[in-house]
């Protein structure tokens, strides 16, 4: 059996990660979806999808919700996601950062930097899927209008898909309000994965500088969390301790 390319989908709860996986797999009930604000994906769940003759394993992950005060994503979800990425023996071929438009949340760049720059050390391509754009006259116009805000944070994705992950309400004739946008979105995400995944996956080695906190609170890893992810020294130290034990 051919080895699957691992694609990790991450982002906040409610961003549409599970809906995105269901859409591209063409199986509406493959990944469970919850309308509850707390979300329903606690541990990562892998789903196999074949695109253009290649097998991809899509990993649906826990939502990276902000902690108290909106400063730092919840550490338990971060630790689980780091543990997943580190445990993938076949390596990681692509990260997809799923976020809900049309507004950009402040936590977006913190999540981006934590996984793309720090944990994956800029070695794994990262693409953005922006959901919730079904009401836009032209979904693709959203990115040119907003990319400056991403670039200001140093977020330069390998690829972007401006999409909807819902068909919307059912019409009287049996169709759905956003059927056309949904089918268009499916093709965009397929193309995103095919075009930007690594043919030679990158294996995530343990981030050694997290281990430094065992002997010093001012280790390089902690300082990178403070500087890049805008955490306080205390928050970075607490998270670093958790990650060092994974």
Describe it.
This protein folds into two domains: 5-205, 3-Layer(aba) Sandwich (Rossmann fold), CATH 3.40.50.300; 207-246, no CATH class. The chain contains eight helices and six strands. The chain has helices at 17-25, 75-87, 107-119, 142-152, 179-196, 208-211, 220-228, 233-244, and strands at 5-10, 45-51, 54-60, 94-100, 126-131, 159-162. It is globular. It starts with a strand and ends with a helix. GO terms for molecular function: GTP binding. Pfam families: MMR_HSR1. Residues 6-100 form the G domain.
In short:
It is built from 8 helices and 6 strands.
Instruction: Kindly estimate the percentage of residues that lie in beta strands according to DSSP.
Output: 15-25%
Structural class: alpha/beta
Task: Assign the CATH architecture of the largest domain.
Answer: 3-Layer(aba) Sandwich
Uncertain runs: 33-42, 68-72, 212-217
Shape: globular
CATH domain topology of the largest domain: Rossmann fold
Just give the CATH class of the largest domain.
Answer: Alpha Beta
User: Could you tell me the number of beta strands?
Assistant: 6
Strand order of the largest sheet: 2-3-1-4-5-6
Task: Provide the helix percentage.
Answer: 25-40%
CATH superfamily of the largest domain: P-loop containing nucleotide triphosphate hydrolases
Average pLDDT rating: 81
Order of helices and strands: EHEEHEHEHEHHHH
Protein name: G domain-containing protein
GO molecular function: GTP binding
């Amino acid at each position: 059996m051919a080895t699957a390319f691992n694609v990790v989908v991450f982002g906040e709860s409610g961003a549409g990660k599970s809906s995105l996986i269901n859409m591209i797999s063409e199986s509406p009930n493959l990944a469970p979806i919850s309308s509850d604000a707390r979300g329903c994906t606690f541990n990562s769940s892998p789903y196999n999808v074949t695109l253009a003759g290649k097998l991809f394993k899509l990993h649906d992950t826990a939502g990276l919700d902000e902690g108290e005060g909106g400063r730092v994503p919840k550490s338990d979800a971060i630790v689980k996601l780091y543990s997943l990425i580190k445990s993938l023996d076949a390596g990681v071929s692509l990260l997809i950062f799923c976020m809900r438009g049309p507004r950009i949340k402040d936590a977006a760049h913190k999540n981006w930097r934590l996984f793309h720059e720090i944990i994956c050390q800029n070695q794994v391509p990262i693409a953005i899927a922006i959901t919730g754009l079904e009401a836009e006259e032209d979904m693709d116009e959203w990115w040119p209008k907003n990319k400056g805000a991403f670039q200001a944070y140093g977020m330069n994705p390998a690829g972007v898909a401006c999409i909807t992950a819902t068909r919307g309400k059912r019409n009287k004739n049996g169709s759905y309000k956003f059927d056309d946008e949904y089918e268009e979105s499916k093709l965009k995400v397929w193309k995103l994965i095919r075009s930007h995944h690594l043919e030679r996956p990158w294996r995530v080695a343990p981030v050694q500088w997290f281990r430094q906190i065992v002997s010093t609170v001012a280790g390089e890893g902690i300082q990178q969390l403070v500087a890049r992810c805008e955490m306080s020294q205390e928050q970075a130290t607490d998270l670093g301790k958790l990650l060092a034990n994974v």
